[in-house]
User: Fold this.
Amino acid sequence: MKIVVDDKIPFIRGVLEPFGEVTYLPAEGITRKVVADADALFIRTRTRIDGDLLDGSRVRFVATATIGLDHINFDYCRQHGIFATNAPGCNAPAVAQYVLASVAALLRRENRLNDIHRLTFGIVGVGHVGKIVEKWCRQLDIPVLLNDPPRAEAEGSEGFVSLDEIAAKADVITFHTPLTRDGKYPSWHLADADFFARCKRRPIIVNAARGPVTDTDALIAAIDSHKIAATVIDCWEGEPHISAELLRRADIATPHIAGYSLQGKIRATTMCLDFFRQYFGIEHPIEIAEKAPMQLPDVTSIEQIADSYDPFADMRLLLDHPDDFENLRDFYNLRNEVN
Assistant:
């Protein structure tokens, strides 16, 4: 068996060798020629899985060590008998930490941290990440509004509100949707000029989902027209070539590292290895030395989250090196989650 592995996936080196020939490559090195005779791929979001890469190959297993999956053409994989999976929820605690710590950092900068209980959080997309943001907000007695049309359709509308109500009533609006362009509930440019025009309370806007969920031009216009109070951007349209205009205006700007926790990376690699084991019928677990807690911690104060992560440190690195977006991600000093 030939296995191709993105060399930036942590904790995986050395564990797959008992099962085949393993090649470690940077994302740009995972090419059609390289994978032609490969059986399994372990990738990140920088490798697009579709016919351009896999036509004519013998690949039958693909695992991405990420929560995101919009870089995988699942229809193509199904049509060609390829098992493809992500690592759902692996870094959700880290992204939730990023969101609340970033809002706390903005308030702390103005000596208003205790005012967080007066803010209503509008959570758009209440999946793996959104549920944790919701849980921690409720533990901190922070009011929440939940918007998730697919869940509302499947579970009933009770407990969910419209995007219009989020725009009208939320002081913080944080996005946690997958990126979809088609279907009943597309999220591409969900926060567009019309959305920002409907915002009534000059909210803090947080995008730690996918860059194109927010329309960059519309967001810049909303900042300039004072429709929003502050902007926290971790995910950018056009990555790694990010908008210099938005970078200059953002109150917190980071290089798509919201989910880059030590524990999240351990979970992602562990999950991918377990999918590999199950798919290829390997009897014994494939273990790595590092372990991560599966139990979500309770939070008892906003200080607990605020002290766990300083987004301004990551922002300074991005401001100093905006053209090194990829390197800032690839060589990020993984932080610890809230404990």
The longest strand covers residues 2-6. The chain has two domains: 2-86, 92-259+305-330. The two ends are 40 Å apart (CA to CA).
